[in-house]
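Note on ligand handling. Small-molecule inputs were canonicalized before submission; formal charges were left as drawn, and no protonation-state enumeration was performed. Where a ligand contained multiple stereocentres, the stereochemistry in the source SMILES was retained. For guanosine-5'-diphosphate, this procedure yielded the string shown in the input block below.
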Amino acid sequence: MTVPSPSTRLRYSLYIGFALFFASVTLSFLLPTRRWSSSSIAFLQEAVVDEADIRPNAAIVIMISPRRLTETLMALKNIEDRFNRRLKYPYVLLTDSATNISDELSEKVRCITEGRATIAHLPEEMWAVPDWLDQERIRHSLDSIGFSLAYRSMCRFYSGFFWRHPALISYDWLWRLDTDITFHCDVQYDPIRRMIKSGALYGFVQVSGDAIGVQESLARNVSQFLHSRPELLVPDANLAFSWKNVSKALQGQADNDDWTVSVMYNNFEISHRSVWSSPTYQAFFEYLDQQGGFFYERWGDAPVHSYGVSMVLKKDQAIQFSDLGYQHKDWGYECPSQPQCACVKEGPSAGKRFPVFIRQAKRMNIDFNNRGDR
Ligand SMILES: Nc1nc2c(ncn2[C@@H]2O[C@H](COP(=O)(O)OP(=O)(O)O)[C@@H](O)[C@H]2O)c(=O)[nH]1
Ligand SMILES: [Mg+2]
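Structure output:
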């Protein structure tokens, strides 16, 4: 047997030393110990975010109309049954001062939502009719086109304030749902995680038109805003979703005839707060609010959001969910061909009142993604 020379022995010792060093480094990553620095914990948390335990920082936001309390409970029960008993997102339920939150109602909300709901008041500064508006002009509008003051306050609140509400300020993702909705399918994934994975900041279900007669000057005002603040334009934003002729809109010359009348309905709306807190959207809302159209006309929050989203997001940053069997009121909806959906393609899913919505939703979805390419 040959005896290793001193230099060979030194080489072996070095090999063994390196091997022990690498083994201990590897083990320190695999076996959690209390000596981990906060940065290594943060690293691990990032790695598992997509996988399982850590829920996106999101809340489901529902505004409660004083006259629709049973409808609210039915909506909460449906949402829990279809997905949220599994996903466990917290709820923020918004009420105005006319809403009587009785002990009976609170107890039922607590029971249905397993205690995950907070009831929060709508602050006057986000809800009341601004006193600098011409009250006579508002009265005239109420008489001629209807839509109550509270309804118009709701539209203005969702257009310009909801993400800044004190009960919502700490959430990154805001999942708005209304009370007049039904999910016909078990939702077998988490839509917010899906958005995060695909890099989307806005999620919707249905696209359709909206009444022009109750918001006659909205398109013109949006166009004038675009013209007045060119420095706020976002490169590659999907303006063609809202405008048939984008350059005319940018020149401040567009009106109702130039509007595509495409609206992403926001009775189901998942958004990242950065959409609304962006300088462009904030300035857009301030501009509209100064014109008074939320009360002089009925400027809807759905068209305002759609104009805003097409101003700040690129095509692939907004995605449509069409496999949820989601219905608003008794309007038409998609009934997916899946056994877990309590609907059939014939009959009610075609819509009692607006069967055309299904066709439009399909067409408009294609438009949201491709209209700008045509
Ligand atoms: N607090 C309050 N909420 C309201 C009022 N009107 C509607 N809402 C809520 O706002 C959301 C949208 O209202 P909805 O009437 O369904 O709007 P539509 O679908 O555009 O006709 C729903 O969640 C309602 O509960 C109101 O007068 N007061
Ligand atoms: Mg509704």
